[in-house]
């Protein structure tokens, strides 16, 4: 039976449990579980991280841990009883674990590894804590280490800052908000700025001296030297080096390493140096030979200096190599370092080029104890300490030091009867009182142990030596008295023996008779002469003699006479001995009572360090004097005491305050002193107001804290001694003292007056007195003193400084022990509040005000939560809160508003302070609101006298709450603080909403307050810190347990308040739709369920008001887009929105329109969600573009939202541009361009467009679109836009831009003809299955592939874009199961485009460069063929039953367009019979053959292989049954009998077969010319097989129509005939040819009635010259260049001439030779007439030179590889359609022989071109004076078609597709190419109607108007645009002759670029957009 557990509540899983039993709960090792019930070895419970799933598990798998249980029962929570640091560690490591793995996934390797190490470290430390064997101190260190690591990790991972106290996490509910803020701020600051260290230490490690000339031992001395004051700052550090320059004792590191300690911050400056002196030990001269003498001397070697400031910048790890300078002149040795510092290096030479002292130097910061911890290795290994000379900046009590430093300065010696100066050496000894030498008490410096004696340097032959050597004498204090130092002087001989001879001595006693030590300073010592063997052991004998010349009696001339002297400088650094006589006089006051007055007076002049050395003795002396003669010396003693107390305020001596405190507590014995102290203090206070000089009084008041300490302690001692006598008298004295104080404080003074400054001084020290008074007086009494004292201050204080001091006093009061007591607090609170209120109202000293408030409010919280709170205290707390609310709540709100709206100050320090103040006030407000109970709120709201006041208060508090919610209010990682803030806000809002309901509804309704309320609520719910979904599960669980989901609470409150509004709801429609929508998008189901019904309510009220809810709809749609693009909302929301609202409106009368609105909004959400999901993916891909197109169309067609439509146009444009889909980008931008007109309306700034006129924006768009069309190689579309822009420029006479535009247009024509365009592939893609996004689901699209993209690559790309999709392997339409499947299926296959512009493609003479555009642009329909067999398959001949299923797909928009893919609108299926199929196959093969032959002829092919392979394939197939199979299948009688309706088709097939044979024959002839030698055998084989094929087809001779129509050449015929006439370039020859060609007209007519094109015979004539024999066709030699005679006529003159000569013709020939060569190469018929090459003698006929085009071979790019498919090229064949015949040859007579030009409008003033029609058969014109007649069409001609195309015979004929050889395409080299533009051919007028000539003056340009409608459309056929007038390019030209002047602007036509005005009936027209562009 399951029993609820009593104690077994919490455990940790020891081993994983699979949970395979019934109701089993799977467990992982390490999980924590909460146990609910137990039963026979099993527990029932749940894992804490997932409390929703409960189950059973074996009890043996669980390790139980003790835990607290909260809320026992159904909703109990368990808190483990363990160290809070352990709990935090465990939960934090769990959170980190998951994030750590993510770091690996995100490839953040550095942080991944660092976190790994930290986690391991924390785990290791956790074990140590859990084991519990650590000492208390070690445990503290470990916890500190753990918390530091946890904080570091949290910061790195962007987790929350944890507030801690003593390493434990703090529960925000357990402390006040102000305290929480302080903790957070403290942790935040600690993270930011470490405090700079005030003490610094220099670590020196001597490595070696590198020098070439060593060989002697060295001594190296380091010290720190002040270059500014020219004095050493430290003692010396001394290192001995061996002969190699290495330390002598390498094993003893303390001999090589030292720490120069206690450097102050002022010592780290540029002019403080490390000075190194190096002394050698050896012979007198460095270069002396070794002699027998073993005596060694200390001799100068060198010096080095380095600035300490250099170490601050250098890398501390680096070793420094100090340059060592040798001393040349020994007399300067004492100042060598000074000269080096002054940069006088030139006086010394380096002691070797590579000489240097290698040392490690490192500056360390912090106190010495800190260094011991941080640099443990340094101290354990051993390091000597080198002290500062004198005390450090801060003297610590208990520091023991007694060092005497003596510097051997200089000496003056006589020669002593010698001819040269002496070599003097000094030996120093220290002797005690008995004359014994003190052992080891002479030290040359730190680092080496002390010795018994010290030998100075020897300076060679110098009677005035200056040594400047410092030695240290660490003599114990007890040995100082009676000791003396003796200096012995010896002359060092340089003779062989090298002996040292004593010649004198000096001495100096260390202490004088009166107990003073040797004074600091320089002393001139007397040198007493002595003999070499004099014994100096008898000290008392010489000690009686004078030692210093300063001490000599005035009558003693004997010793003053000698010139010999010796100078030393002494400096004592002692904590026990003094050199000060005044100090000694004071301490020994009893010996000399008469000196007391003087001694007390001189005390102020004594150095502070001397006083603090003897602090206790001095104080005893003062109070001793006071006790003995208080009347006489009371005032002096008091002043001396004040001086000593104030001395301890100095930062140098502040550490001695505890020494004085200890003295007062333990040693002070003046039980009677209090009377005198009170009396003197009162005497001073009473004189404040009248005194002129306040300085001394201010000093007294500064010391008042310690004076009171002495008074109180003295009184306590007296009470103890007397049993409390004179208590009343003491109280009266104190009361009188305070009365005097109150009187002086109540004086009103100006801020500059001395009294005001004295008041300030007193207020600063006053709070320190409270604690002392409490030792004797009760809390209430002291509080009374304080209240009255502070209350006595004048209210209207003029002094700002006094105001600040007053606040500081209040601050200290609030923070004192006195205020903490509730009894005293209620007395002091009114005073504090009064001062605070006054300051905050004036916005003064806000930093201090915030501090005071913080302290006050943190105390209240403590009291409330304290464990020992008695029942009586609670009302006190409540009253305090009431008082504070009454006084400060309003002013606090105003202050927060004021400082939040104030601009932030500039400096970083000021800004920090500013933020702190805001944060502190906010914390105070929150703390106060959290303390307020129901009663407080009621009192607060009742206290408002009027509605207006209440309204202002509510508006104020709502505004403040909005400020508190701002993200920048607290740091990003302060989630704890934010949650507390939100908890307080929601509690307060619940209280205030009642007031809102009661006071501001119905007739008292106030919109502003309600709006502020709703606005606050919405912002509250949307805060990032409340979005629990974004948090980790553990964090979410904690927040929910502590606060619940505050969003739902606030949502319910909004709903409740909304329901109360009634008819006032209309005031918030539509304003609140957006905010409420934002709330409903929060992913919290409960919140959504509460808030979505409000929209129904809004719709209902809007319906009542205006009969519809258009406003609601508009607002919803506008806001949805912006909110969802921010990432809000999801599929669940869409479904919920739909279902809730549909349910709500079921019974409404307006149900239909409501359903429509909901459906629209839901559909929009679908698209927006798809759009957002697509945008999350990485690169730009089709899915993103497709989705944007879907959304864009939705906004345009269904919602009619123009601004959103334009926004998405630009988003789509950006996507295309990024993906380099330049053509699609252009089409996209055109959508916006079309919405604009050429008007001067001003447009506002929008997206990235500046404020500009509509004309300017349209111009900018045009230019951008043209640029993109150019990049996308869609030049034809760019030309139209260029023209439209040119028209605009022309209308404004902006010829500069017009010129540029014409040049741009010309360059686009060039590119059409010059550049290669790749043919795109098209693919049909079906997206089946429910898993696809809405805009793709179960739809089929046709997609335009990328360049070079074939089916396999496209398939792979689509599968990459949809990685979960399954590729279908068949092309059949899928069934319903696929449509409904919960998966993604992709069906992809290639489709063939069906061009719309068939007339352009069928037209002869249009180069393939131009045709290629029409083949693959503006394509609506695509075809897919699937072969299948109908009936029984004939195994012998499968062609009989081979049918083709042809699927035609029609799109909703043509490709290319605004997307690379468009949806299929319609599918059509037709079946093609075997015969029709055979016709198509042969037609296509013929076309391919023609193309290849032409390419070969025009030398466009790099090699001949494609032609070879094609010929081989066709001939081989034909021989082996290809064409024969067709004959067997369709030419047999059975078939003809059974299919009589196919007669025409059979005839057509026969024609095609003959045509193919003819083309093959021609192709073989061309092949023979170009085939390389190694392929000749293959060619021969092909020729043989071709004859076989002909015979197999039964062809003996070609029919006439086939013979007459050889392969057509687009660039003219091959022109060099083998039998051409030699004199063809003579004029006569020219005439003869012209005459002979006249009879060729009948030939044209002869064939026009047959199915052969009338052009054909002419072409044959052109090829063969005179003969029509087809055999001669193959004898011609292809010319090296093709003629492009008329190309210059199609181009504007300036463009033509711009082509470089190298492009226009052969670079080797001059122009005239080139033309003569061209003429020589032409057949007689092709020779140009004078229209092109006019007679140079005839000026009237002379054409401008730039009009003469140069012929050259069409170029093809040698870098381009052979294309995958054979494709048309600039000189390729044109494929003509079956539907329409080509125009007859005569048709080309009246028009120019160049590709049809896109139509030109007939506006005046544009530069007209010289357009002359030219033809090889125009022989009727005179060679001398003939120009081309102007062609003036009749108005009817634009409807008529050519004679040939009207022929019924030709309309079905295919042979008409052979293009004319007589027309010339534009040469690629001519510099200009124009795209085709003709749809209808121009019929030829009867020959008689053509004028023979034109007046010879017609040199002006002749304009030919083209009637052809434009062959392409940039816009879609279903364009939902406003009507645009038909462009003039489509209209009939009214005139041909240009007028003399350009038109005026108002005459300009308004035609805009309209490419196809008709709309496709299949596509429904969308509703037109209203014109709102003016705003955009």
Architecture overview:
43% of the residues lie in helices and 13% in strands. The longest helix has 29 residues. With 1976 residues, it is an alpha+beta fold. The protein starts with a strand and ends in a 125-residue tail after the last helix. Strands 12, 13, 14, 16, 17, 19 and 20 form a 7-stranded antiparallel sheet that branches. Strands 1, 2, 3, 4, 5 and 6 form a 6-stranded antiparallel sheet that branches. The chain has a 6-stranded antiparallel barrel with strand order 34-35-40-39-38-37. The C terminus is likely disordered. It contains 66 helices and 40 strands.
Gyration radius from CA atoms, angstroms? 55 Å
Low-confidence stretches: 863-872, 1600-1975
Structural class: alpha+beta
Q: What's the overall geometry?
A: extended
Instruction: Give me the number of helical elements.
Output: 66
- Count of strand segments: 40
**Assembly status:** single chain
Distance between the termini: 77 Å
Mean pLDDT: 76
The largest β sheet comes out as:
7 strands, antiparallel
Helicity level: 40-55%
């Amino acid at each position: 039976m399951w029993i609820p557990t009593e104690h077994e509540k919490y455990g940790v899983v020891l081993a994983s449990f699979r949970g395979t039993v019934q109701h089993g709960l799977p467990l992982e090792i390490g999980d924590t579980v909460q146990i609910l019930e137990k039963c026979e070895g099993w527990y029932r419970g749940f894992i804490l991280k997932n409390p929703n799933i409960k189950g059973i598990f074996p009890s043996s798998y669980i390790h139980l841990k003790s835990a607290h249980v909260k809320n026992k029962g159904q909703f109990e929570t368990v808190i483990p009883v363990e160290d809070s640091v352990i709990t935090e560690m465990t939960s934090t490591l769990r959170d980190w674990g998951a994030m750590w793995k993510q770091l690996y996934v995100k490839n953040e390797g550095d942080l991944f590894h660092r976190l790994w190490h930290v986690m391991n470290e924390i785990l290791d430390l956790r074990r140590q804590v859990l084991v519990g064997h650590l000492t208390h101190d070690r445990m503290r260190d470990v916890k500190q280490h753990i918390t530091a690591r946890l904080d570091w990790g949290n910061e790195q991972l962007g987790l929350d800052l944890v507030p801690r106290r003593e390493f434990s996490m703090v529960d925000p509910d357990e402390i006040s908000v102000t305290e929480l803020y302080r903790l957070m701020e403290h942790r935040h600051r600690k993270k930011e700025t470490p405090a700079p260290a005030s003490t610094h230490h220099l670590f020196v490690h001597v490595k070696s001296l590198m020098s070439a000339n060593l060989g002697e031992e060295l001594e190296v001395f380091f010290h720190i030297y002040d270059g500014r004051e020219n004095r050493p700052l430290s003692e010396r550090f001394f290192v001995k080096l061996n002969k190699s320059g290495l330390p002598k004792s390498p094993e003893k590191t303390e001999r090589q390493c030292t720490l120069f300690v206690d450097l102050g911050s002022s010592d780290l400056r540029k002019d403080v140096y490390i000075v190194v002196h190096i002394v050698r030990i050896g012979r007198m001269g460095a270069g002396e030979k070794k002699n027998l003498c073993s005596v060694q001397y200390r001799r100068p070697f060198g010096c080095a200096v380095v600035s300490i400031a250099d170490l601050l910048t250098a890398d501390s790890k680096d070793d420094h190599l100090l340059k060592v300078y040798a001393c040349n002149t020994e007399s300067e040795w004492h100042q060598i370092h000074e000269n080096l510092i002054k940069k006088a290096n030139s006086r010394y030479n380096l002691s070797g080029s590579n000489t240097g002292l290698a040392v490690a130097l490192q500056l360390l910061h912090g106190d010495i104890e800190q260094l011991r911890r941080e640099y443990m290795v340094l101290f354990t290994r051993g390091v000597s300490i080198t002290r500062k000379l004198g005390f450090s900046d801060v003297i610590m009590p208990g520091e023991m030091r007694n060092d005497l430093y003596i510097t051997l300065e200089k000496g003056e010696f006589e020669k002593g009867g010698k001819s040269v100066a002496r070599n003097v050496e000094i030996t120093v000894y220290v002797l005690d009182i008995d004359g014994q030498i003190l052992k080891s008490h002479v030290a040359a410096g730190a680092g080496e142990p002390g010795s018994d004696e010290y030998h100075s340097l020897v300076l060679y032959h110098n009677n005035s030596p200056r040594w400047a050597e410092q030695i240290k004498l660490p003599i114990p204090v007890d040995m100082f008295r009676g000791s003396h130092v003796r200096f012995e002087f010896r002359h060092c001989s340089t003779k062989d023996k090298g002996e040292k001879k004593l010649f004198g001595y000096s001495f100096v006693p260390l202490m004088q008779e009166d107990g003073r030590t040797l004074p600091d300073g320089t002393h001139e010592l007397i040198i007493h002469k002595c003999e070499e063997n004099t014994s100096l052991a008898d000290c008392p004998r010489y000690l009686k003699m004078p030692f210093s010349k300063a001490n000599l009696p005035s009558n003693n001339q004997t010793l003053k006479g000698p010139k010999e002297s010796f100078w030393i400088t002494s400096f004592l650094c002692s904590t026990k001995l003094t050199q000060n006589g005044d100090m000694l006089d004071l301490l020994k006051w009893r010996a000399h009572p008469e000196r007391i007055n003087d001694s007390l007076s001189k005390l102020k002049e004594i150095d502070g360090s001397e006083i603090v050395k003897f602090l206790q003795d001095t104080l005893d002396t003062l109070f001793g004097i006071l006790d003995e003669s208080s009347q006489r010396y009371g005032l002096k003693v008091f002043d001396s005491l004040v001086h000593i107390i104030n001395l301890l305020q100095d930062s140098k001596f502040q550490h001695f305050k505890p020494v004085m405190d200890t003295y007062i507590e333990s040693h002070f014995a003046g039980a009677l002193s209090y009377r005198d102290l009170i009396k003197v203090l009162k005497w001073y206070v009473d004189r404040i107001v009248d005194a002129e000089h306040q300085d001394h009084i201010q000093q007294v008041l500064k010391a008042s804290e310690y004076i009171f300490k002495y008074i109180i302690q003295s009184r306590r001692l007296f009470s103890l001694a007397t049993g409390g006598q004179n208590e009343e008298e003491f109280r009266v004295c104190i009361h009188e003292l305070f009365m005097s104080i109150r009187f002086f404080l109540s004086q009103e003074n100006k801020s500059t007056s001395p009294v005001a400054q004295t008041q300030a001084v007193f207020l600063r020290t006053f709070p320190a007195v409270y604690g002392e008074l409490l030792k004797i007086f009760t809390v209430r009494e002291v509080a009374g003193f304080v209240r009255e004292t502070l209350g006595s201050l004048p209210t209207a204080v003029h002094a700002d400084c006094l105001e600040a001091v007053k606040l500081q006093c209040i601050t200290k009061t609030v923070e004192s022990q006195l205020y903490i007591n509730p009894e005293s607090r209620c007395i002091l609170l009114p005073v504090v509040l009064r001062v605070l209120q006054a300051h905050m109202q004036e916005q003064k000293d806000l930093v201090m005000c915030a501090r005071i408030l913080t302290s006050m409010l943190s105390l209240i919280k403590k009291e409330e939560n304290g464990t020992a709170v008695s029942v009586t205290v609670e009302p006190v707390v409540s009253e305090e809160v009431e008082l504070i609310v009454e006084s400060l709540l309003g002013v606090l709100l105003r202050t927060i508003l004021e400082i939040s709206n104030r601009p932030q100050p500039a400096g970083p320090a000021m800004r920090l302070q500013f933020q702190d103040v805001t944060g502190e006030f906010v914390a105070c407000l929150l703390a106060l609101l959290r303390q307020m109970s129901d009663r407080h709120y009621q009192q607060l709201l009742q206290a408002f006298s009027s509605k207006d006041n209440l309204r202002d208060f509510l508006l104020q508090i709502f505004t403040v709450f909005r400020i508190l919610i701002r993200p920048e209010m607290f740091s990003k990682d302060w989630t704890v603080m934010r949650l507390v803030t939100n908890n307080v806000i929601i509690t307060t809002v619940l209280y205030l909403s009642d007031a809102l309901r009661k006071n501001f509804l119905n007739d008292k309704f106030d919109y502003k307050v309600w709006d502020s309320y709703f606005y606050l609520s919405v912002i509250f719910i949307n805060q990032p810190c409340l979005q629990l979904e974004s948090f980790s599960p553990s964090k979410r669980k904690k927040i929910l347990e502590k606060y619940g989901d505050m969003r739902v609470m606030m949502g319910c409150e909004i709903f409740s308040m909304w329901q109360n509004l009634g008819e006032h709801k209309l005031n918030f429609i539509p304003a609140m739709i957006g905010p409420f929508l934002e709330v409903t998008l929060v992913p919290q189901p409960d919140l959504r369920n509460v808030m979505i019904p409000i929209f129904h309510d809004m719709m209902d009220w809007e319906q009542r008001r205006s009969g519809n809810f258009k406003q609601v709809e508009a607002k919803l749609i506008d806001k949805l887009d912006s909110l969802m693009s921010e990432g809000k909302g999801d599929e669940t929301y869409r479904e919920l929105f739909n279902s809730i609202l549909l349910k709500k409106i079921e019974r409404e009368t307006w149900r239909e329109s409501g359903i429509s609105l909901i459906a629209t909004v839901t559909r929009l959400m679908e698209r927006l969600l798809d759009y957002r999901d697509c945008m999350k993916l990485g690169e730009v891909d089709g899915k993103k573009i497709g989705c944007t197109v879907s959304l864009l169309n939705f906004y345009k067609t269904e919602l009619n939202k123009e601004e959103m439509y334009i926004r998405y146009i630009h988003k789509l444009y950006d996507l295309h541009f990024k993906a380099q889909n330049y053509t699609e980008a252009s089409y996209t931008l055109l959508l916006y361009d079309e919405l604009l007109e050429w008007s001067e309306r001003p447009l506002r700034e929008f997206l990235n467009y500046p404020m500009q006129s509509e004309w300017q924006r349209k111009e900018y768009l045009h230019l951008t679109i043209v640029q993109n069309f150019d990049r996308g190689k869609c030049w034809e579309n760019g030309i139209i836009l260029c023209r439209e822009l040119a028209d605009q420029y022309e209308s404004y006479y902006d010829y500069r831009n017009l010129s540029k535009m014409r040049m741009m247009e010309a360059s686009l024509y060039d590119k059409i003809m010059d550049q290669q365009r790749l043919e795109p592939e098209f693919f049909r893609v079906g997206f089946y299955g429910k898993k696809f996004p809405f805009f793709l689901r179960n739809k089929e699209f046709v997609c335009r592939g990328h360049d070079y993209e074939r089916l396999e690559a496209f398939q792979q790309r689509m599968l990459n874009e949809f990685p979960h999709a399954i590729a279908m392997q068949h092309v059949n339409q899928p069934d319903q199961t696929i449509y409904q499947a919960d998966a993604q299926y992709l069906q992809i296959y290639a489709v063939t485009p069906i061009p719309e512009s068939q007339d352009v493609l069928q037209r002869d003479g249009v180069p393939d460069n131009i045709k290629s555009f029409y083949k693959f642009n503006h394509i609506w329909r695509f075809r897919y063929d699937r072969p299948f067999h109908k009936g029984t398959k004939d195994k012998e001949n499968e062609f009989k039953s081979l049918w083709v299923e042809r699927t035609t797909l029609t799109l909703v928009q043509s490709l290319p367009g605004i997307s690379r893919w468009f949806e299929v609108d319609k599918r059509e299926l037709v079946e093609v019979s075997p015969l029709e199929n055979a016709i198509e196959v042969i037609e296509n093969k013929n076309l391919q053959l023609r193309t290849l032959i032409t390419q070969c002829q025009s030398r466009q092919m790099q090699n001949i292989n494609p032609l070879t392979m094609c010929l081989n394939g066709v001939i081989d197939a034909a021989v082996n049954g290809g064409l024969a199979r067709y004959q067997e299948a369709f030419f047999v009688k059975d078939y003809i009998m059974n299919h009589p309706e196919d007669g025409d088709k059979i005839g057509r097939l026969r024609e095609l077969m003959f045509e193919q044979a003819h083309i093959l024959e021609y192709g073989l002839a061309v092949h023979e010319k170009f085939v390389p030698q190694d392929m000749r055998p293959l060619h021969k084989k092909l020729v043989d097989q071709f004859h076989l094929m002909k015979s197999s087809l039964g062809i003996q001779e070609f029919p006439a129509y086939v013979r007459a129509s050889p392969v057509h050449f687009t660039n003219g015929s091959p022109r060099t005939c083998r039998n051409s006439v030699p004199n063809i370039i003579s004029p006569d020859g020219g005439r003869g040819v012209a005459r002979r060609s006249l009879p060729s007209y009948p030939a044209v007519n002869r064939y026009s009635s047959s199915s052969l094109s009338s052009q054909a015979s002419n072409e044959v004539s052109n090829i063969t010259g005179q003969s029509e024999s087809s055999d001669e066709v193959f004898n011609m030699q292809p010319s090296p260049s093709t003629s492009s005679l008329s190309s210059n006529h199609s181009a504007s003159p300036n463009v033509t001439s711009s082509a470089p000569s190298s492009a226009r013709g052969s670079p080797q020939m001059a122009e005239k030779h080139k033309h003569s060569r061209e003429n020589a190469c032409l057949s007689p018929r092709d020779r140009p007439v004078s229209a092109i090459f006019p007679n140079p003698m005839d000026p009237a006929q002379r054409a401008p030179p730039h009009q003469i085009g140069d012929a050259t071979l069409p170029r093809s790019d040698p870098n381009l590889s052979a294309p995958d498919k054979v494709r048309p090229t600039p000189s390729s064949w044109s494929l003509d359609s079956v539907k329409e015949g080509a125009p007859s040859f005569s048709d080309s007579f009246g028009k120019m022989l160049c590709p049809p030009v896109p139509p030109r409008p007939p506006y005046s003033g544009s530069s007209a071109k010289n357009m002359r029609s030219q033809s090889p058969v125009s022989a009727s014109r005179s060679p001398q004076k003939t120009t081309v007649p102007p062609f003036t069409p009749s108005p009817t001609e634009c409807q008529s078609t050519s004679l040939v195309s009207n022929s019924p015979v030709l309309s079905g004929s295919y042979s008409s597709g052979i293009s004319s050889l007589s027309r010339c395409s534009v040469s690629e080299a001519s510099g200009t190419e124009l795209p085709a533009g003709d749809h209808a051919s121009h019929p030829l007028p009867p020959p008689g109607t053509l004028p023979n000539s034109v007046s010879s003056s017609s040199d002006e340009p002749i304009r030919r108007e083209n009637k052809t409608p434009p062959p392409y459309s940039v816009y879609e056929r279903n364009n939902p645009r406003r009507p645009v007038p038909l462009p003039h390019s489509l209209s009939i030209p009214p005139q041909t002759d240009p007028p003399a002047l350009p038109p005026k602007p108002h005459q300009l036509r308004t035609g805009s670029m309209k490419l196809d005005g008709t709309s496709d009936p299949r596509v429904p027209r969308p509703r037109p957009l209203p014109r709102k562009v003016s705003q955009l």
